[in-house]
Amino acid sequence: MLTEIDALSYIEKAQKTFSRATSRAERSAIGQFLTPAPIARFMASLFKRNGAVVRVLDPGAGTGLLFAILTEHLISRSRRPESVEVVAYETDRNILPHLETTIGVCRELCAQAGVAFRGIVRQEDFISAAASQLRDNLFATMQDSFTHAILNPPYKKINAETPTRRILSSAGLETSNLYAAFTWLAACLTRPGGEIVAITPRSFCNGPYFRRFRKALLGLVDLRHIHMFESRREAFAEDRVLQENVIFHGIRGEPQETTVKISVSRGPLFSKMHVREVPFQEVVIPGDLDAFIHLTEGDDGLQVMECMSRFSSTLTDLGLEVSTGRVVDFRARELLRQNPEPGTAPLIYPCHFEGGFVHWPLSGGKKPGAIVLSEQTKDLLVPAGYYVLTKRFTAKEERRRIAGAIYDPTRIDTPWVGFENHLNYFHSRGSGLPGDLARGLTIFLNSSLFDRYFRLFSGHTQVNATDLRRMRYPSVEQLLQLGREMDTSLPDQERIDAALERLRSENG
Questions:
Q1: Per-residue pLDDT averaged across 388-402, rounded?
Q2: DSSP for 258-327?
Q3: Partner of 110 for a Cys bridge, out of 117, 230, 249, 459, CB 3.0 to 4.6 A?
Q4: Range in 10-14, 94-98, 244-248, 373-377 with the lowest mean pLDDT
Q5: Residue 140: its pLDDT value, please?
Q6: pTM metric for this prediction
């Protein structure tokens, strides 16, 4: 007799065998990162509802470990289902033999438990199949929908001109990443009252690229539980993936409950896990048109939110704007010069940040240091003035997500300057800021409080201008007060944070 332990151990070993037989590059090319068994078990444990007839959807099933562990979880309950049907989508031919074996294992386990089982492997593109079914309205009846959806979707961008993007658009789904498309479609195919559990990158929680997906998901499901990993390395350690991931559990078509569980695990086996109930309005702030999802890790996160609430000014209140650098270097290559020369303007990159200021030019730098002044470039440049710059991208394990620096016109004698596209820049209607205001804003952006708050809703290393626009800032008077802390260089972190704490206390 096949025991549950033997069956799942066999499937797990088969998955490891497949992983060793294929390269990380091959799996990465199709966005395939197989789910480790401890994560699969945790995901299965999140499903709470019982039903006599179970239909499970596993899009991008891989070896089938996810639906196998879910099947074992369901039939081990005191109140077992009468039947389980699994529909698994997978296009990787190399993994299909393992998937078929898993189907057979599940069939035997269910037979031993007296539960009818049917397993269907569909060797076809899930997006094409699901989008077609939605367009044709084939999932209008209960028997055609799914009671359970469990998925670890592929992580890969969708180029705008690909057939996949056109298929999604035709079904009314607009997204730029496969994981969002898979999750969106899976939620659509889950019946009212059905449950969905998915492990995805955390990047959908904020930013403009996932706005439509985020709002659609929140409209489709009642979020019950969101799980985070303390380290980026934990979820897919065997594939050496540095990615902030979350696992979420939701119920289709029910009103959002007033609270949601937020959990954090420390270690690969979920042995050290902290779980707390958080008011949903602290996760998705009422009235937020972007529907950002804030994930607070314990009381520290709530304290950060409370501290930031003391600052209520928008950039509009401050008379400021933030934009992305206009110079895309590879598009203007023939107009760039390695070193400054007559008839050129400075071109500023993140590599020019040092001590809270822009230091230009750099001797022996790899990046071009100047851009030609011409009719072609006049719209790419801004007039000399004080600007506050931030990096748009940081390394995955970099200590800070936000790093601000001042472009000081008294240090660089030129009437025009260009900011490269890897930078965001704060300005006042296209021109510079008052010097003291620029210094105060730089100190605020470099504070630990601002960085920690930003990380509460940002799950990726990109800092978009949209993210910075929706943040709240001190008033003009408060920024000027902060600016007095800075002279020829940025104060150290301790002094920055002490200055901000004094400011917050004096105005609290």
A1: 78
A2: SEEEEEEE-STTS-SEEEEEEEHHHHS-TT-TT-------SHHHHHHHHHHTT--B-HHHHT-EEEE-SB
A3: 117
A4: 10-14
A5: 46
A6: 0.74
- Confidence bin at 376 (pLDDT 50/70/90): very high
C-alpha span between 180 and 185 (Å, rounded): 8
What whole-number percentage of the chain has pLDDT above 90? 57
Residue 9's alpha-carbon distances to 65, 76, 111, in angstroms, are: 10, 16, 19
CA pair distance 299, 310, nearest whole angstrom: 17
Cβ–Cβ < 8 Å for 363, 375:
no
- DSSP annotation of 125 reads -
Model pLDDT for residues 320-342, shown as the tens digit of each residue: 999 999 999 999 999 999 999 99
CA distance 341 to 370: 8
CATH label, 315-506, candidates 1.10.10.10, 3.90.1150.10, 2.60.40.1120, 3.90.220.20? 3.90.220.20
Residues 6+ apart with CB under 8 A from 456: 294, 295, 296, 301, 304, 305
**Cα–Cα distance, 355 to 496 (Å, whole number):** 13
In whole angstroms, how far apart are CA 4 and each of 37, 64, 109, 113?
A: 14, 15, 7, 10
Q: How far apart are CA 435 and CA 210, in angstroms?
A: 36
Tokens read off for 415: 């009437």
User: Where do the structural domains in the chain lie, given as residue ranges?
Assistant: 4-297, 315-506
Give CA–CA dist 63/103, Å, rounded: 9
Q: Helix crossing, 4-21 with 96-113: angle to 10°?
A: 180
